[in-house]
Specification:
Number of strands: 12
Shape: elongated
Strand content: 15-25%
CATH architecture: 3-Layer(aba) Sandwich
Length: 280
């Protein structure tokens, strides 16, 4: 009997590349699909799949907030519907899709996410797939991509002040390695999780002002110089679907046993250390 086939959509991305490396250690076959595929081609790539991990929901600019961009809707909603339509009757593969843990409506992705989750849940009830939606908070783990932590680290390394708009804002910051273990846990417990969305995160909010100070201090320690200043600017930036969002992972933990294991201090130290090496 052949090992199960796992298809990763968005395999060259921030999370996807790490997931593929982890899957390579497992007794599975892997089909890695990059983010540049059009919707029909990406849907066709799942033929024969036992598991599909859909990570290709970011827009062309690499962020969630590309308002008005039709590409965002195609990735969030159109691809989910195309995946379901492409499944052979009777197979019911596991489909794990990721989205954000914030309040819908703040960004293009926030508006499209509920429709994508509903499409996956409906397909699960119809017996076409075993669909699982994981709602993620702010994910970090590198300084060369999108995201608040990456932007702050790059600015601090460049000696630029870290500018805050609304210092009381909080985020739940989840390391990319913990995202990968959550995806693997979802696959392993697919039958118990299918048909619903699940919050995945640390469950512990971090004030953005404190995060900024920690990043400035970490860069300063590596560089042997004074930390860059942290400046509070007003008025606050418009709210988005990550701001203030804290993912409560209790339900997901109860089913899978998963917990976030990378402490924020250690995760930030790794990001800063790697970024400084890249800048040498």
């Amino acid at each position: 009997m052949s090992p199960p086939l796992v298809v990763v959509l968005g395999a060259s991305g921030f999370v996807g590349a790490r997931l593929v490396r982890m899957l390579a250690r497992c007794p599975v076959r892997i089909r890695a699909v990059g983010p540049a595929r059009p919707v029909p081609a990406a849907a066709g790539a799942i033929d024969g799949a036992d598991v599909v991990v859909h990570l290709a929901a970011r827009t062309a600019t690499g962020g969630w907030d590309d308002d008005g961009n039709a590409l965002a809707e195609r990735a969030d909603v159109g691809l989910v519907r195309a995946l379901v339509a492409a499944v052979r009757p009777g197979r019911a593969p596991v489909v794990v899709s990721t989205s954000t843990a914030g309040v819908p409506g703040g960004s293009a992705h926030g508006r499209h996410r509920p429709a994508a989750e509903l499409a996956l849940a409906a397909a699960t009830r119809a017996g076409r797939v075993r669909g699982i939606s994981l709602r993620l908070p702010s994910v970090y783990g590198t300084a060369d991509g999108p995201g608040m932590v990456a932007r702050m680290v790059r600015r601090a390394i460049a000696g630029q002040p870290l500018v805050l708009r609304g210092e009381a804002a909080e985020r739940d910051l989840l390391h990319v390695d913990d995202v990968v273990t959550a995806l693997l846990a979802a696959i392993a417990h697919a039958d118990a999780l299918a048909g619903r969305h699940w919050a995945v995160g640390t469950g512990t909010p971090v004030r953005v002002a404190e995060l900024s100070a920690a990043i400035a201090a970490a860069v300063a320690e590596h560089r042997g110089r004074a930390p860059v200043p942290v400046v509070v600017a007003e008025p606050p930036a418009p709210a988005d679907d990550h701001r203030g969002a804290v993912a409560d992972p209790v339900a997901f933990h109860a089913v899978t046993g998963w917990v976030a294991r990378v402490p924020l201090a250690a995760g930030l130290a790794d990001v800063v250390g790697c970024a400084l090496l890249d800048s040498v």
